[in-house]
């Protein structure tokens, strides 16, 4: 039976399957050799490109090299990558040597810095908290074009890769809080959503940004009573509108924060400030006023945290108790849902990689693509981010002038 309305699909046993059609190569198209190494950073379980992304890249004429075991902790098997069209490489040094472009989650570290070669393209997180001037100088000496996840910005002003990770973090914060509220974990023994005749838990969220929004959405899904505080009235108004006024909002004054935290079963730290440390909104005294067995999830520990009693923990040792309140303060929360996070990275990253190939060179890609251009922090031998120059006392050059001059 033909299904005319479903163009581009063919019927096989079991249902409909897409008919793979590689995009036509333009005159400018360049076949890239893209490397996906295994992450070496402590407890980093994500991989930059899932097998589905390899299929799309190969269909567009690119060669993809994947280090053996790169997707293991996200439960992507080597044979899945091979079936998708990737070339498996057992030695990371060989992978770096063969590729024009390296796509990874964390910035290169240790031996990886020695594997980098001249004029390579590097796309990864920069992780501002751990960045050093020496790292930036190393990339510039090699004339590398470095593009950071934190800086890639879409035409509508959003930071797509950052937003995806923040959505995951917000949702996970509630999932984690629900677990640690259970008696077996030393919590109050309270269900987030309650049951008939028993009221739900009270979840207080500090911050109405992306992390706070997705924490609120998830908490509402569980049936919790949700209170969101922020210092910006406009952010609270927007969140009330998006969530159909199913949340309670209040300005984050000291009085309101103290009152809300005292009544909370769960406190989610989600207050962020672009390019700066998160503001500390909850004091040690406020935490001491919480009922025993309450839970704090400081979801912005990678920005310093917004609760005075927070200190960084790890996936292997995620919690501690302070004033008989459970604290979960893992900085890299999305790594613990490595498969979901890897798909999210793939969905955003692969179209950018395809665009670089279509443009024929990184110079042309940066000229034509505002998102990639805004994401660039080093280009050839120059630092191109004013914020980094200020941070390390270095000189910088405007990326648009560098590209226009053909350097």
Automatic annotation (TrEMBL):
Ranges for domain Alanine dehydrogenase/pyridine nucleotide transhydrogenase NAD(H)-binding: 181-329
Top-level taxon in the UniProt lineage: Bacteria
GO annotation terms (biological process): L-alanine catabolic process
Origin species: Longibacter salinarum
Keywords for the protein's UniProt record, in alphabetical order: Oxidoreductase
GO MF annotation terms: alanine dehydrogenase activity
GO cellular component: plasma membrane
Residue ranges of domain Alanine dehydrogenase/pyridine nucleotide transhydrogenase N-terminal in the record: 35-169
One protein family per Pfam: AlaDh_PNT_C
Residue ranges of the TM segments: none
Protein name per the record: alanine dehydrogenase
Family listed: Belongs to the AlaDH/PNT family.
The organism's taxonomic lineage, starting at the top: Bacteria, Pseudomonadati, Rhodothermota, Rhodothermia, Rhodothermales
Enzyme type, top EC level: oxidoreductase
EC number: 1.4.1.1
